[in-house]
Design brief:
The chain is mostly helical. Helix content is 77%, strand content 0%.
Length: 207
């Protein structure tokens, strides 16, 4: 995979829309259909909850005991739909990457279900967990610094130091995200997960 120009990368999105407008519309329709299916599957539960919330004393909605089994079923369904959403996102991302890297493979609007999509799907889940844990771990010192400042009646200093520490944590996480932002395109291009090559590819281009 050759080095990618930042300017070319920014302009490629608009160029892709101009070259393949119908395919871009197909991606949007796929996402819309998936989202509509999610809402339709969850509508019975949330419709009932909203009706009871808006009319708590209405005779049409008599009080009924809480059904933990039903709630657990819907929670399980919600978790499955979340995973399906990650999968849909991975398929669409790979389609975009494929449209840019392999424009000749336009069959099925570049949409596939293969190893690349699986790797991007797993990478997205791992990255989301890592970012959440990293953010939590990095913001703990900021909260401690701010708390010490407040406890010692140096509220202004504590708040400023806490904000600075929090901003530093955000910058650190953003830097790591930028250095690994080309993992997805590299997976589609090579069919393999190569974090070290991605780190080397983005060297000097983070800004």
């Amino acid at each position: 995979m050759t080095r990618i120009s930042i300017g070319d990368s920014l302009s490629e999105a608009f160029s892709l829309i101009r070259r393949r407008p119908l395919i871009v519309v197909a991606w949007g329709l796929a996402q819309t259909l998936f989202t509509s299916g999610v809402f339709a599957s969850m509508a019975p539960l949330y419709g009932s909850l909203w009706a009871r919330a808006l009319h708590p004393t209405a005779a049409a909605f008599p009080a009924t005991p809480f059904d933990p089994v039903l709630m657990m079923r819907y929670q399980g369904l919600s978790n499955l739909l979340s995973l399906a959403g990650w999968g849909m996102t991975a398929v669409l991302y790979c389609a975009v990457f494929r449209a840019v890297l392999r424009p000749e493979a336009r069959r099925f609007a570049y949409l596939r279900l293969g190893a690349a999509e699986g790797l991007v799907f797993l990478m997205g889940i791992v990255t989301g967990i890592a970012l959440a844990v990293g953010m939590f771990a990095l913001l703990i010192p900021a909260a401690i610094i701010a708390g010490i400042g407040i406890a010692t009646h140096a509220v202004a200093i504590g708040v400023v130091l806490g904000v600075v520490a929090g901003a530093a944590a955000l910058v650190a996480l953003s830097y790591l995200a930028l250095r690994f932002c080309l993992l997805g395109p590299m997976i589609v291009d090579t069919g393999r997960l190569r974090p070290l090559e991605c780190w080397a590819l983005t060297r000097g281009a983070t800004g």
